[in-house]
Amino acid sequence: MNPKYQAARSELLARLQEIEDLKSVAALLTWDQATYMPPGGSRARARQLATVGRLAHEKFTDKAIGHLLDQLQPYVETLPEDDDDAALWRVVRREYDRAQRIPAQFMADVANHTAAVYMAWTEARPANDFPRLRPMLEKTLALSRQYSQYFPEHEHIADPLIARSDFGMTVATIRPLFQRLRQELLPLVEQVTAQEPADDRFLHQYFPEDKQWAFGLEVIRRFGYDLHRGRQDKTHHPFMIKFSLDDVRITTRLDPHDLASGLFSTLHEAGHGLYEQGINPAYEATPLADGASAGVHESQSRLWENLVGRSRNFWHYYYPRLQETFPEQLGKVSLDAFYRAINKVERSLIRVEADELTYNLHVIIRFELELALLEGTLTIAELPEAWRASYQEQLGVTPPDDRDGVMQDVHWYAGLIGGGFQGYTLGNILTGQFYAAALAARPSLPDEIAAGDFAPLLSWLREQIHWHGSKYTALELVERVTGGPIRLEPYLDYLWQKYGELYRLSRPKVDPVPGA
Amino acid sequence: MNPKYQAARSELLARLQEIEDLKSVAALLTWDQATYMPPGGSRARARQLATVGRLAHEKFTDKAIGHLLDQLQPYVETLPEDDDDAALWRVVRREYDRAQRIPAQFMADVANHTAAVYMAWTEARPANDFPRLRPMLEKTLALSRQYSQYFPEHEHIADPLIARSDFGMTVATIRPLFQRLRQELLPLVEQVTAQEPADDRFLHQYFPEDKQWAFGLEVIRRFGYDLHRGRQDKTHHPFMIKFSLDDVRITTRLDPHDLASGLFSTLHEAGHGLYEQGINPAYEATPLADGASAGVHESQSRLWENLVGRSRNFWHYYYPRLQETFPEQLGKVSLDAFYRAINKVERSLIRVEADELTYNLHVIIRFELELALLEGTLTIAELPEAWRASYQEQLGVTPPDDRDGVMQDVHWYAGLIGGGFQGYTLGNILTGQFYAAALAARPSLPDEIAAGDFAPLLSWLREQIHWHGSKYTALELVERVTGGPIRLEPYLDYLWQKYGELYRLSRPKVDPVPGA
Fold this sequence. Notes:
Number of strands of chain A: 3
Oligomer: homodimer
Radius of gyration of chain A: 23 Å
Strand content of chain A: under 5%
Strand order of the largest sheet of chain A: 1-3-2
Largest sheet of chain A: 3 strands, mixed
Shape of chain A: globular
């Protein structure tokens, strides 16, 4: 590398390090706020988060970053596309150009507005008072549409919003995938729920929190989550958060009367944590030290939570240990009964409590409502009723109020409308595709899982996915790992195989939607 | 205020807020490092602390701050000296001018050097390997002398270093105070230790940590420490740390075989916490939201730890409760025996474990060694032997090694040499003076303490000391509170009264040192 490039590269890395350090600091402020901060600290904490966020934004949108990128372009063009420097340059260029499109004043308006909406939501939701939020949400929608106008080249108005978390995906690619998925899920859910529901009452006995905590930790340690480079704490809403590649923390929530809730939340967040703990350490303090997209991130959490954690093989190994931990509660419950209970399917109101099958229906409802709002075919005033109608039509349940209806999820009340939900279902779809690729590479995986040996699966994920951080976009990564585009079929195969076996069903023929 | 001043004042406050937010963020990084950070996080954490520290320094030394101070000077000159704006201007002017004297490169050199020395100390101390540290410490001493050279107007070379934590105090004012204190302490210690030592073996039974924790929390809550605006965690070295005036946290350390150690550490840190929780909320996010000096801060911790926490009146109220908490361990131990045990005096090696009487001798030894090093009458090579000789002469004990001798305290191995110790003994002296003033204003305080009512004492401290933050210098504050300069006599009266009663001693006449 010639000295001119070397100097520019060093300066760019130093600037990126400073920005990443500020982002890590913001993450620590957030983590502390959710875990240990005394209530009195909240006002100053909001101010500190705003200060640090503003500094990071100022430093990233500094024209000097653009100049350095320009200076480095001829160097990067000599590199193979697969080179880390080239990848870093592309990611920074993309993010920098995106940030330059958005006026600082607009970002500040969004931050102030969404902070106010969030505060109002925390009060209006318990009071079931959607009308209070309506004018605020109308402004949120206007801001969301405005955001997309900064990217006038978009094909669909939701695309720039989707690109913020799932870069490369668009309405044109997601909508047919989701339509086909729903088309397959509806009859499956219909058949499953037509049968006697699984008895899961024994999961709602009293399970002391300390034992739940210890069991969950034991499982995720065995998965490979490194407690030397991470830790688990309790929060109201579980999450994963990173302060550096060597400090990736998770949180969980335990309910002494609900064994499954805390356990699967722990496995889910550990899946996110395993992803970030596995990123190439050379990417530390650069934008490459991140997940490839919201969807890919969710694929990692869901893979460990569902494809591993709710599998018969997993419990073949772990159920005797769980019975030892809770002999009074589970001593007389068979493995088969337990396996059915943790995979109970029911039409329900709440996304985050939904089972593996119906979960995607919750997500698709939200995704389509978002699109309708952005397209202008639905107004905020009509939203609560549209929510109810969608639930009635697709899930067969009617929310008795807006609290557990349109005000259920925080997303629309803590940011822009659009782009916040598709990642969950993209992640689920990818679990099927990634796991099928892993199985093809190593057919012994199920037996290893049944023997409590998760190292082979983790190694494969590390090498194929984790290691690369955000070097590749989601679509590039899927192409590398599976040899093609995102495909629904492996996920459908997985669902039909699992639930077909559980409920003795055989898969009907469905006309494929073109392109899915 | 005319609009020009108003604009300058607003801009200055906005800049100060940003700087204070960065300092709070650095404090959170530090707190997390000591409490919950997984070991793997340490490398990135050092980098993040350096980034945030550098940004705060850059922003505070920005010439714009100087211009704003200049612009505001005519406005401030129209204000009464006691006005908050005037005080803020003085404090910022003082700190800004000090910061301007020090080249940024020098600060960076000091930061890098002291980080390296600290790392080396953590290894060399357990290995009893002072020779390894010697060349590093010689550089630290050279840097310390260099620091003072940036303030060529100093009277004594240690004065600029002392001013960093105890602004307004100088060698000329501290040395005679400390000499007189030693002159008084030596015969008192002599007489006390000539008697049969108090039996404190019962303090070293097994005391379950959770009960120690709950008891300590109950006491400090009753002191007035607000857990809505603070919290307590466990760390290896206890400390108090502030993230905002509404989030002032403390840490403690519990030893299941040493009841006094954890309890008095808790009371000590709570004293620091009460100080900062009591600062005028109008000072939030400005440099006034801080203690007046290291000495004044220590006076608040020591007052609650010793003058309250080791008093007979306090235990008159709390000992029955402690016995209820630990009936097996203390049920048969009388209040009198307990009171003697927690006030046991012995000549010992370790400062942080020393009793109330000998503690100051440990500090004065360090203070005088620092002065000798800075004056050039002592070399680093001679320091270990000088340490041993001082301990032998003044405390009658000889450190068997350098680990518990010259390498005992972190101070010289984590910063400059000079100015790090005097605050401890200045604080002790001030406890006597402040408490005497409190008693004069409210003679019923001892009875209130004996009834477990700490609110009157806290109210007095709040109003007289806490509320003002760093609005006044230590000397101004002492003048306001006691009507005169720092005086040793009230502290000596307190010590003689307490230990005279405990050991049936009467105070000999000592020729006063002029000026003390």
